[in-house]
Write a structure and sequence with these properties.
The protein is α/β, with parallel strands linked by helices. The protein is 25% helix and 31% strand. The protein has a 7-stranded mixed beta sheet, with helices on both faces. Strand 2, helix 4 and strand 3 form a beta-alpha-beta unit.
Length: 245
Amino acid sequence: MVDRSFADLSLAELYDTLNPWGPGDDFYLGLVMSADAVLDVGCGTGQLLRRARAEGHRERLVGLDPAAAMLVQARQHGADVEWVLGDLRTRQWYAEFDLVVMTGHAFQVLVRDEELRRSLRAVRAALADGGRFVFETRNPGARAWEAWTPERVREVTDADGRAVRVWHEVARPVLGDRVTFTETFDSAAWQQPLVSRTTLRFLGPYALDGFLHEAGLTVVERYGDWGRGPLTPASPEIVTVARAD
């Protein structure tokens, strides 16, 4: 068993298959199309920005991701987008963007308080006054991690037509607002499974508001799903639109 993540090229090639376009992508695409300069933090394979360009966005699009393998995939299909290797600790911009987004629950990998504060300060610095920061986190009230069990196996096909099985397992017990889990990828064509270990932070709306306010960001819209429904205790998502003060 080998501990890997989507930084591994073989897994990065599977990312879009495992994460097909959905309602959340439609939500973000509308925002991107209405903004001139956009920064996508944790852009992954760049699916959102590539789609925006294909649908006619002609202004500045920048994708930032710490995994070189992900950007290899992005550059294959999006040569006219700025793809930047790194994260908000290593790459900084100042008042250059109308919109910053973090999609795919990327916000939840900011586990430590200081890491979160530093990242939010960098987001605020990157935004022009009045610009928007839009992201989503899983609502802790919905307890999504309870469904991340080895019995729930997905099977997808890789670029060579080989079946790949994928499943999750949460480290127990779950304490506080952090959930650690493994994601295992296995195929009969491989010598051994590949395993990614991740910790995510599940913050509620009040805690999120405190961190955002401290960074100079004010919540102006909040939804509980991709249809812009109200946030309730059982909503699957906490979708936040914050304005740079």
